[in-house]
Every structure is written in C-alpha cells, then in structure tokens.
UniProtKB/TrEMBL annotation, chain A:
Keyword Acetylation: no
Pfam family, one: BPD_transp_1
Taxonomic path: Bacteria, Pseudomonadati, Pseudomonadota, Alphaproteobacteria, Hyphomicrobiales
Keywords from the named record: Cell membrane, Membrane, Peptide transport, Protein transport, Transmembrane, Transmembrane helix, Transport
CDD domains according to UniProt: TM_PBP2
Membrane topology according to the record: Multi-pass membrane protein
Residue ranges crossing the lipid bilayer per the database entry: 20-40, 81-105, 117-138, 144-161, 203-226, 246-268
Protein's recorded name: ABC transporter permease
Species of origin: Mesorhizobium sp. WSM2240
Main location: membrane
Gene Ontology BP term (one): protein transport
TrEMBL record, chain B:
UniProt entry tagged with the keyword Zinc: no
UniProt keyword terms in alphabetical order: Cell membrane, Membrane, Transmembrane, Transmembrane helix, Transport
Organism: Mesorhizobium sp. WSM2240
SUPFAM superfamilies tied to this protein: MetI-like
Protein name: ABC transporter permease
Chief location bin: membrane
InterPro entries registered for this protein in UniProt: BPD_transp_1_N, MetI-like, MetI-like_sf
Amino acid sequence: MSTDIASVPLLRRPLNGARLFGSALLVVLAGFAILGPWLVQADPATQDFGASLAPIGGDYLLGADHYGRSLLARLAYGARLSFGMAFLTTLAAAIPGALLGLAAAWYGGWIERGLELLATVVLALPGLMLVLLLLAFAPGNFGPLFLGLALTLWVEFYRVTRATTAAILRQPHIEAAKLLGFGSGYILRCYIMPVIAPTIATLAAFAMATAIIAVSTLSAISVGLQPPTPELGSMIVELLPYYAEAPVHVLLPAVLIFLLVLGLQLVAQRSDR
Amino acid sequence: MRRFLLTRLAQAGIVALVVGALSFALMHALPGDPAMRIAAGRYGPDARIVDAAEKVRLELGLDRPWAVQLTDWIGSLARFDLGHSLVTGAPVLEELKVQLGASVWLAGAALLLSLLIGPTIGVFSGLRPGSLTDRLGLVGAVILRAMPPFVLGLILMLVLAIWLGWLPPAGFGSWRELLLPALTLALGLAAVSSQVTRNAIAAVAKAPYFAFARHKGLPEAVVVRRHGLRNAAIPVVSFLGLQAIYLVEGVVVVESIFAYPGIGHALVHAIIERDVPMVQGTALVMGLMFVVLAATVDLASAWLDPRLRSTQ
C-alpha cells in the first residue's frame, strides 16, 4: 500500500492535458457515484432469474448479472461505495496524520520521538498485512477494513507534514515573525498551511487510489466486503464464471475501478517528465 | 555495516512483537472461549467438548492472567515454537516451511521477470526520449498502474490460460504453473521500474561523462553498457527496495487468485477459517520476508554505489 511522495505540490502545477483529463474523469465518475443510485430506479439487490445475464441495451440498460440484478444499479452503488469508502479512509488518515506531523515538528522533544517510533513500527509491517490482521477479527465487515486502511495510510501524511513543517520552521522569516510578536495561530495560517496544503492534496489523491484498489482487491479474494454488497471487486469475481456468455458484464466493474484509479493518479501525477 | 545489521534486526523484532500482540488481542477479542475453539479444532465438535476444552485450558494455561500468557507466547516464539493450527492440528511451523518455499520461488521468479521486462523497456525509452517506444512505454505503465493486481491476474488467466491455452490457469508443480502468477506480479513491478530506468537513463545520457565516452569513439553498445547501465541501476535497485512491500502484498493477492499454495494463500484461508495460530504464524513469516527483502535490496544498492557504503 505504498504511495509515491510527490515532491511537487499539487495546486502549484500548471494544469496540463493529462491532469485536465483526470479531473474531468473524476467529475464524471463522482457524478455517477453521487447521483447514480438516486437516478437509477432499480434496486441493486432485487433478483429476477428470468433476466439472468440479460444483454446490454434491453430491459436493463447495462444488462443484468447471473441473478438478474440490474448491473447499472449495482455499478452505481458500487462506485458510491468505492468512492465513499476511499474518501472516508483518506480523511481518517490525512487529518490525524497531518496534525501529528505538525505537532511533531512544532513541539519536538519527546512528542516527536514517540511519534517517530510509532511511525517506524507501522512502516515495519506491509500495509496489507496490517489490514489482513485486523480483518481476522471480522472478515467481510466495514469496520476493520476501514480501520486497517486508515492505520496504514496515516504514516505517509505524518512523515511528509513533519518534514515539510520542520523545514519551514527553520527559516529566518518565521523567526522574524515570532520576534515581531505574531502568535502561533498566525504563523500556522499564513506561513505553514499554504505550503503543506497542496502537498497533502497530492498525497490524498494517491491515498484514495490506494484505498480503492485495496478494498476491491480484498473483496475479490473474499476477505473484504461480502457478495450481496454491490462492491466492484467482488462483482468481478462473482461474474467471472460467466465470462464466456457475457464478457462485457465482467469487464464493466473492472473498467469502472480502472477509470477511478486512473483519474486519481492523473490528477496527482508528477510533472517532471 | 554493524549499524545496518542492528537496524534490520530491530525492525525484525518490531515486526514479531506487533504481529504477536495483534494476534494475541485477536485470540482474546474473538467471540467464544479460546479453549473451546481450540478443542473443537483439535477433536471436532462432539458431546464431550466441554471436558476437552477444560483439558486444553489446563494444558495451555489459558486460565492464567493475560500478561503471563503474552510473556509466555513471546518466550515460545524465541524458541521458534508457533503452536498448532486450529484446523489441521499440525504444527504451524511445519505447514509454513512448505508454503514459504513456494512463495519464495514465486517472489524470486517475479523479481527476475520484472528485471527482464522493466529495465529493458526503460533503457530503450530513455536513450530516445519522445520516441514511439518511449510514449508506448509510458502509456503501458500508466495503464498497468491504474489496474488492481487481481484484475491484471484475471485478464492474464483468461487470455494466456483459457483462450490461448498456453499455460495452466492454476495449481502448483512445475515452472509452467509458476509463470502466470509470477508474470502478474512482474508486470506490476515493471510498470514502475521501466519508468524509473527511463528517467535514470535519460539523465545519464545527458551527463558529461556519457558524452565524453562517445567523443572518444567508443561504440554505442559499449558506452551504454559501461557508463549507462550501472549508473542507471542505482535508482532502479533502490526503487525495488520500496517495492518490497508491493511484492509481499502481491504474493497474497496473486496466490489467492491462482490458488497457488504459498503463505499468502495460507494467510487468507487462515483468516476466513479464523485459525488464529496460523494467522499469527503466516503474518510473522511475511513480515520477516519483507524485512529480509528490504535488507537485501539495501545491500545490493551499497554494492552498486560505493558512495553509499561510507554513509552506512
């Protein structure tokens, strides 16, 4: 579950073609995820065996799966689940990660040493393994999956925030601001936030992509979310036995995950080529 | 060198402690009485299960305070005793020996394949930035990066095993069964390593010593081999260190998809069956595999780049 440390802040870079395309892709997909379940009247769990593996374009706009459930509805709910879960996980990793990084750089001393130790401990374990260990408590549940992902992803935010903030705090203009009697709130707002906010945004996009891949992968190997839930990864595996009769049906959820991750990676990409 | 070894040993110790503490918490937090679960795993659920559970409780000392039990667990870990699987009843260590061997083969084959694919594409792209090869390489890397490894595995399985019939879709035995899962992992690694190589070669090709080697009339192949590859290998090898995580995590995913009997497959099954000693054992072994991989890569970078040796 590694994310790249993008050294170039997100909001400072010119909006090139790839990033523009990525943003447009994300807007469309977010629209589908937010409005989709609301616009699509069909229920993602209603079974209709008469319509098993219905082709695309008939009664069902995107066909139906082997239980005759509307694929369009399932894709819309699946996209909402992936997006929502990834968003929540990223928030739960980014906010404490960045705050702890700030605290470590600001106070130093034993706070910094303790946090560094904690970060080292988490980094010594592969992230997926931490998630799998927590999932052993309750396979197929949201709780351990969410907690495990957040627990592995916060370190990246912590480390980058600490390093960046420490570098800023050493600069002479901060010293000058302190001598002039400006409070720590002012320094935080005017000198630190503008520098670290874009970096955090970049990291957040990568973390969301990582979370989307992780949730779908774990569901596909049947320790993540369980089948009745319209989760994109488990949908692929559920439909796989029918690849000969309905190849496009299998492809649809895979393409949706691909586009989600692609959009996030394009938005966060480095422009050093 | 001594400091390096000590750091790695400390890392291995931390992995063992974290995994141990988490599995210990797991054992005690799961619903139901651990003694009952162990007894059911060993003797099967029958009428005398309560007596059996009492025996297990006494035998394993499950009625002692938890702090004593945790210390005891760490003690037995130091003697390389990981307990018995709740499902098969066999010693965890015995099961792990077989599975670890299979996983090490898989990881090794994946690493080798990725080194054949990634850097080769990277060298051709980096020597001619902006060429068709370069652009195709970038598009391929972006596509592979945005695809979850299990989707890639399923696509390879469908195309190479089912449609073309070249390789068996699953199983274990000869190199033919190894090839598909190894290729899945290798392509994921190569997606990034090809780009890292490309950037490194492009940078080296701009360096004065590279131009000098050309000016003094060395043939192009010799210039690339002597002055390009070794310098470009440094970032690639340190990238592989970061990707040790990808490899260890990938082993879990790819083994599950291809039903390949390694430790990743074992971990997923142990979680589904709630076989806590197995979860504990496999997680421990995978964590240590990660530490060993990362250490090997560090040693390899030090060998490639003598400048690093003085700082270690």
